[in-house]
Design a protein that fits this description.
This protein is α/β, with parallel strands linked by helices. The protein has helices at residues 28-41, 44-50, 69-79, 216-221, 230-237, 280-287, 304-310, 344-352, 376-381, 384-399, 414-439, 453-457; strands at residues 19-21, 58-61, 64-67, 85-96, 99-108, 114-123, 139-148, 159-167, 197-201, 241-246, 293-298, 313-316, 336-341, 373-374, 407-408, 466-468, 471-476, 481-484. The strands form four sheets. The protein has a seven-stranded mixed β-sheet, covered by helices on one side. Helix 1 (28-41) runs antiparallel to helix 2. The longest helix has 26 residues, at 414-439.
Length: 504
């Protein structure tokens, strides 16, 4: 019983219907218009009211599927206002008196066209939906929504610069896109990574490109690098190609994955959740299938956390095992190089072409028999769900003969160990980047780091870190002053990421 309407006809509201099948129910387009107004105004309460308050209501976009009113409302609260857009077409298909499908085309301010498909249902509770008054027949609410935004050429949350490829891997003659053929000494070249693609964290030197460290103002002043970082070069020599340079938390000083300038990369494993960082861009690129290897760093979890959040394989190597030449440092005492992959074999091959290349002074890479330990106090501190999953996985691995049964170990006061790490990391982070931050306070005001060297020197110095009365004490030689951790203010940018692990 299709009933066409003129293309420019206005029915029951400000919306113009491009086409209609069925008899248009009262209040439907008014509810649609109210939803669009709430979206433009970022009216969180109205947006929440526009969706059915059930555990089965759906919202999907390129980032994945959200199920349930609570998950959808939480996602909107973290995302903030959506992109500015103008509705240019609306098509309605009425299924029955209380159910209708609306497909709308919108024109975002940034260009392109988006499509939103919504299943609307009317209940009879008389409550208010969106910001429109409910008609006598009941309230229209969204039961399911599919949002298709214009596809960006490059997702700036994931990539800073990308190519097809940005840097090709070594050819059969041993040459790469930026290097002449390598002297193979008569041996067969390592081709184990041919066909693999790499997302390089924006801390490593890629010849011809500047290092940005997740900070646009820092990137603006940085000169293009003349050589690849050692870790990049070794992957290229094995045949992998660099797809692009991927985003990181500012100066890699966070494990959340948030970046105030470029945005938070998506987490395809848990739609609406944070990505984890600071190797956030490479992790998202690998999880999304846009690269097969993520090259990153791990100072305090920056590979392991995003791997955990996004269901990837991630490896923090032994400190010093991988050459850090060409890497912008955060805290050199703890900085390590590692990789992310979707499967263990790819991770193993990426490690294999890199780890043998450590025959240099001060480095002794030796194989050891594997052993496994678990600290019961750490296991007791996690949520019951995590503890159950961990214990089950260990039992399955032991039963399959994959690992020996872990031995118990006592690490001691983990909270105090973490505080020692945090103090040293903060001091070294300031030594690495403090001068730039001091010179650019406006560019970096979103961070909580104090911006005077005097503040840091009066509180933390690693030279004489010691234990005293079970508290962390740092002696600053020039000041001759002991400062305990009770005087510390906000000296880290962890941004409550630990408490927000996997948060939607």
């Amino acid at each position: 019983m299709a009933e066409g309407v003129p293309e420019e006809a206005r029915v029951d509201s400000v919306t113009t219907l491009a086409s209609l099948e069925g008899s248009l129910p009262d209040g439907l387009l008014a509810a649609f218009d109210a939803y669009e107004r709430a979206l433009a105004a970022d009216d969180q309460a109205a947006l929440a009211a526009a969706f059915e308050p059930t555990a089965t209501v759906l919202r999907a976009d390129a980032g994945g599927l959200l199920v349930g009113h609570e998950a959808i409302t939480a996602f909107r609260g973290r995302r903030g206002s959506g992109p500015v857009r103008r509705v240019v077409e609306v098509h309605a298909r009425v299924l029955d008196d209380d159910t209708a499908l609306i497909v709308s085309v919108n024109a975002p301010a940034g260009g392109g066209r988006g499509v939103v498909t919504q299943l609307w249902r009317r209940d009879a509770d008389g409550g208010a939906g969106a910001d429109a008054e409910a008609p006598a027949g009941g309230t229209w609410r969204v039961a399911s929504a599919q949002v298709q935004a214009p596809a960006p050429a490059v997702d700036r949350r994931v990539w800073r610069v990308v190519g097809e490829p940005l840097v090709p891997g070594r050819r059969g003659d041993g040459a790469t896109g930026t290097a002449p053929p390598a002297d193979q000494g008569g041996g067969e070249p390592d081709r184990s990574l041919v066909g693999e693609t790499v997302a390089v964290k924006d801390l490593f030197a890629v010849a011809g490109h500047a290092i940005g460290a997740g900070v646009p103002a820092f990137l603006d002043e940085a000169a293009p690098e003349t050589e690849h970082a050692s870790a990049v070069r070794l992957l290229l020599q094995a045949g992998a190609s660099v797809t692009g340079i991927a985003q990181t938390d500012e100066f890699a000083y966070s494990i959340a994955g948030r970046n105030s300038a470029y945005g938070t990369p998506p987490n395809p494993a848990v739609p609406g959740a944070i990505s984890g960082g600071s190797t956030s861009g490479p992790a998202a690129a690998v999880a999304l299938g846009q690269a097969s290897i993520g090259l990153g760093t791990d100072t305090g979890g920056s590979l392991r956390v995003p791997a955990s959040y996004q269901g990837l394989w991630g490896l923090r190597t032994t400190h010093g095992a991988v050459d850090r030449t060409g890497l912008l440092p955060l805290a050199p005492t703890f900085d390590t190089v590692g990789w992310l992959a979707r499967d263990a074999d790819t991770l193993l091959r990426a490690a294999a072409v890199t780890l043998p290349a450590v025959d240099r002074p001060g480095v002794d890479q030796r194989g050891v028999d594997p052993s496994y330990v678990v600290d019961p106090s750490l296991l007791a501190a996690v949520t019951p769900e995590v503890r159950t999953a961990f214990t089950r996985s260990i039992e399955e691995a032991v039963s399959a003969g994959s690992i020996a049964r872990p031995e118990p170990v006592a690490l001691g006061d983990v909270a105090e160990l973490f505080e020692l790490f945090r103090v040293l990391q903060a001091y070294e982070a300031w030594q690495s980047n403090g001068a730039w931050i001091t010179a650019h306070p406006v560019s970096y005001t979103h961070l909580t780091l104090p911006t005077t060297e005097a503040w840091w020197r009066s509180r933390w110095a690693p030279d004489h870190l010691k234990k005293k009365n079970s508290r962390c004490v740092c002696r600053v030689p020039s000041a001759g002053q002991d400062i305990t951790n009770t005087e510390q203010t906000s000296a880290t940018m962890y941004n409550d990421a630990y408490s927000n692990a996997g948060q939607r």
